[in-house]
Amino acid sequence: MRGIVGEFDPAMAPLLLSYGKALFELAVSTQGALGKEELDKQAGAEVSQIEDESSGNLVESAEFEPEAEGEPSAEDAAPEAGAPEPEGGEEGGEDVDEPEDDYNAAWEVLDVARTIYSKIVEDGGSDDDKLNLAECYISLGDVSCETENFSQAVQDYTSALALKEPLLASSSRALASVHYQLASVLEFTPNRRSDALSHVEKALEGFQARKVQLESASPEAPDVVKMSQKEKEAELGDVKALIGDLEAKIEELKAAPEAKDFVSESINHLLGGIGSDAGPSGSAAASGEPAKVNDLSGLVKKKPAKKAAPPPPATNGNGTEGESDKRKAEDEAGGQEKKLKA
Predict the structure, then answer these.
(1) Residues with Cβ < 8 Å from 142, sequence gap 6 or more?
(2) What's CA 13's distance to the chain center, in Å?
(3) Where is the Tetratricopeptide SHNi-TPR domain (predicted)?
(4) SS3 sequence, 96-143?
(5) N or C: which end of the chain has fewer CB within 10 A?
(6) 78-103 residue pLDDT tens
(7) Interatomic CA distance for residues 156 and 3, integer angstroms
């Protein structure tokens, strides 16, 4: 198709959308707990084991013989004249480039399809073109979810919802599905739990309206009129099961606390709940009562105070008592002696 119509021709859009969805399904199917590369290695090892068992030969480790002195090694030997050089600049001509990730390949293909459909819609495309553009956004959102790029997934699902809401009835399962996909991403987005609850409630309203249409004796929906009784019963069972799941999801979102910063919560927990409402200090602050502080000063043993040493006697510059002080002491002693004699 590229060779016939070109890369960005409108005729390429449906094919690119289908191809991108197929790449996404391939990426999901090959993604396991051990990762895609590990699964490929295990598959290759199993195939080799089957081939060895079918041939009846045992695989043994190769034994390397020492090189004779004077003979050049294979690495040092110069290439013969006229021999083709290995491609890619690598030894042995092996291509060491790793295969492109399936998620990245799906994203690139779906983004090209989105670009083409966006140009078609801008040029006055039909409602079907708008719905196809919405499908591109939904598929891009699915890739973003699998690669844990939740902020981009929110943008893609929101764009798809904006395109589908004016075109589809409120009882459309496709519209309810987009509401639920958007709610699933918002649930893990900080401070967006209320928005997630709102979208789950809208999805529930859509499935309940669909249930009424399927149970009606004279349905107004054109697609329900064309369905057989067996098809109605099968879809009605699916819708009832989905309604039960959505009701349980709403109760879960209402009961769960608002998602907060995990790092801040961990720090507050390590500090004993300081700054949070979970610990005792937080509850006391919320109730307005002063926090009780345990006085441990009575358990502290105090050392006895040291006695002050008497001041040293006054000395003169030579380190002896002053002579004026000596005379004063002698006069006082003489006066006391005279009083005793009298």
Answers:
(1) 24, 153, 181
(2) 32
(3) 134-169
(4) CCCCCCHHHHHHHHHHHHHHHHHHHHHCCCCHHHHHHHHHHHHHHHHH
(5) C
(6) 444 444 444 444 444 444 444 468 89
(7) 31
